[in-house]
Amino acid sequence: MKYIWLYIIAIVASLGGLLSGYDTGVISGALLFINETWVLPDTLQGFLVSSVLIGAVIGAATNGILADIFGRKKIIMATAVIFILGSILCAFAPNVYVLILSRIFVGFAVGIVNFVVPLYLSEVSPKNLRGTLVSLYQWAITAGILFSYFINAVFAQAVYNWRWMLFAGVVPGLVLFIGMCFMSDTPRWLVSKNRDDEAKKVFSKIEPDIEPEKEIAEIKETLVDNRQEKTFRLKKWMIMPFVVGIGIMFAQICTGINTIIYYAPTIFKTAGFDSNLTAIYATTGIGVVNFIMTIIAVFFTDRIGRKPLLYFGLTGVMLSLFALGTSFAFAGVLGSSLKWVAVGSLVTYIICFAMSLGPIGWILVSEVFPLRIRGIAMSVCTVSNFAFNFFVVGSFPVLLHRIGGAWTFWIFGIVSILCIIFVYFFVPETKGISLEQIESNWRRSVNPRDF
């Protein structure tokens, strides 16, 4: 296989997604036992879960500058170290306030990795494999979520159970750090630092059939053009890509995915599962479905297209949310059957999300922006993703207890309808279109429906 080294690089770097996914999923099981250690009011419970997103916003906002100064590889390695230290701090937190601060520290690493790893992958990938490798990162996130669910199940009956769950985050951090020790930085960053000989070696490994000198010359030409353009103004035609990028981040988060990931055991207990352990086992099943369906999405994205999968996924998400809300509304009628309706609804939700909004959201963000602003634009979208996430995750336990499960999930269902309308009118179909053509369409003010 001529791309064998490229795939090795992509797999190792994508372990950053494993790190992000682990932190996303582990709190779902740990929260049940944290509430037994300290009795937390709804607002503090929501803040504990969402506190990681405060750090994530800071990490995503500052990452672009740090990655340009120190390189993509070093920033990924530093992220692993932060996550390792943060996991240790979380495990030994003497009170909930120290735990929240520790979660914010871990969140800083999560915010960085969600930007720098896709950037790293895009800069080492050939054009014909870029979409697949970006999807690989999303798949690694689901693998991290699944891994966290297994860890939760393993330690659910242990002494100091939630502390062991959070401490286990050291493992993906170590794996990422050790793996990146053997990787090189991206050719583009190396050329930008006048390290052409190293860039040639990287090119010869990741793309054996190309001429490294020609690729380096093109990179240098781009760098010269950017340096000559000392001032930059946001032009009117650039607004629509931001509408699409931030809008698809809104759709990805505000249809409720992380309320499911973070609070699945809590939802299952509310629906009638008797013990923490059975709720965690049910959540592990959700993680398995999420992992498998994301693999399927990787193969269909470039065959079926982005928008058809988004229509399918959002419709399924909407119906499953309305079904889940209705089951809570008629809990008295359903009785013990409520928990199985909840399981069926959540499984359907995850299937539809994993095949659509999960991977396609990040693919679109990497495609719709012009080259000149792609780095900062992706950073803006990443920050918006975490900001939406903070609001939704932080408000969920309050909504669940104040207005009930029925109206909480119905609200998410209504948001899904609005997102379908947004996709129809504003999101372009980018399947089979070069990045240059996408940029040209924006410049010529082509309607997104006519791409």
Question: Characteristics of this structure?
Answer:
single chain; globular; mainly alpha; 451 residues
Written overview of the protein:
- Helices cover 82% and strands 0% of the residues.
- The radius of gyration is 22 Å and the shape is globular.
- It has 451 residues and is an all-alpha fold.
- The mean pLDDT is 84.
Short description:
By secondary structure, the chain is an all-alpha fold. 82% of the residues lie in helices and 0% in strands.
Mean pLDDT: 84
Largest sheet: none
Radius of gyration: 22 Å
**Unreliable stretches covering 5 or more consecutive residues:** none
Helix fraction bin = over 70%
- Please state the overall shape, judged from the principal axes of the Cα atoms: globular
Return the structural class.
mainly alpha
Termini gap: 35 Å
What is the ordering of alpha helices and beta strands? HHHHHHHHHHHHHHHHHHHH
- Strand % is under 5%
The total count of strands amounts to: 0
Specify the number of helices: 20
Give a topology summary.
Layout: H1 4-37, H2 42-70, H3 72-91, H4 96-124, H5 130-155, H6 161-167, H7 170-181, H8 187-192, H9 196-206, H10 212-228, H11 239-254, H12 257-271, H13 276-304, H14 306-329, H15 331-334, H16 338-354, H17 357-367, H18 374-402, H19 404-426, H20 435-443
Helix pairs in contact: 1-4, 1-5, 1-6, 1-7, 1-12, 2-3, 2-4, 2-18, 3-4, 3-6, 3-7, 4-5, 4-18, 5-6, 5-13, 5-17, 9-10, 11-17, 11-18, 11-19, 12-13, 12-16, 13-16, 14-16, 14-19, 18-19
